[in-house]
Amino acid sequence: MAVIPNKDTFVPLRIDADQVCVDYNGNLALYDASLKLQPGCICGLVGMNGAGKTTFFKALMGFVRPSRGRILINGCSVSTAQKDQAVAYVPQNEGVDCSFPVSVWDVVMMGRYGSMNFLRVPRESDHIAVFDALERVDLIDFRNRPIGALSGGQRKRAFVARAIAQRASVLLLDEPFAGVDIRTEKLMADLFLQLRQDGRSILISTHDLSHVRNFCDVVVLINKTVLAYGNTSDVFTSENLSMTFGGMKSDPISGPISSDE
Ligand SMILES: Nc1ncnc2c1ncn2[C@@H]1O[C@H](COP(=O)(O)OP(=O)(O)OP(=O)(O)O)[C@@H](O)[C@H]1O
Question: By the 8 A CB rule, do 129 and 165 touch?
Fold first, then answer.
């Protein structure tokens, strides 16, 4: 029986990644990485450049196939979750041609495509979802502008709006705070807290430790594998952070130093 919601049904989801390994043509990017993401939770994914954060997101989205390990979303496979649009991914840098004359409204409407038929004629519910998402990121006045005419920070907000319009239960946000001004940072932080209150789960990769301390319920420290995972206050120790960012005291491939589950 399907346990993944579809269309506008919203059901809190749980993610279980168990000992996931990903390699790119023999180069190991992720090794034995495990995490559990509960509904209504904000989880920070923290690690230095090349630690495997984006690779983890791609595995959760089914863009790369783990060579070992298992990912379940409410007990279903990643491909089932994708079919039902249950998980939305906002990449670090959107691969869109911003000179292409597409409006902000149309970009956010793309989040609705999965629930439309092949003619892609938006219904009233699609218009409402797009309007609501644009209001939540404070871009409603920019809806008719070409996406290329937005600043980098505004564009990031537009892509977050697209994920919200998709009505996904889980949002995977790759460096959402990188390169945004303080106003956008505050707006996004407030928005993520609201989305958590709605029962959505949010996984955020970031280098900025202050964001993690401020609003992540749990944190995953990663360097090719999960070095530490658990409540932010328990995991954010200077020893764990120096192992994640400083000189490694152990081979990351040898396994996690702690895990609460
Ligand atoms: N398509 C690819 N082909 C080969 N190697 C890759 C590919 N994508 C990533 N890698 C390698 O996998 C490792 C993890 O990369 P990944 O992009 O997941 O790191 P990251 O933690 O997201 O880094 P950053 O913080 O710089 O975005 C890196 O060593 C990277 O060079």
Answer: yes
* Number of the ligand 1 atom closest to the C-alpha atom of 92: 27
| ipTM, two decimals | 0.98
Instruction: Using alpha carbons, select from 34, 51, 59 the residue that is nearest to residue 229.
Output: 34
Q: Alpha helices, DSSP H only, in 37-102? A: 53-61, 78-83
CA distances from 37 to 18, 94, 107 (A): 12, 25, 28
| pTM score | 0.87
Q: How far is the CA of 52 from the centre of ligand 1 (A)?
A: 6
pLDDT in tens, 17-39: 999 999 999 899 999 999 998 88
CA of 50 to the centre of ligand 1 (A): 5
The domain covering 12-86+180-261 belongs, at the CATH homologous superfamily level, to: P-loop containing nucleotide triphosphate hydrolases (3.40.50.300)
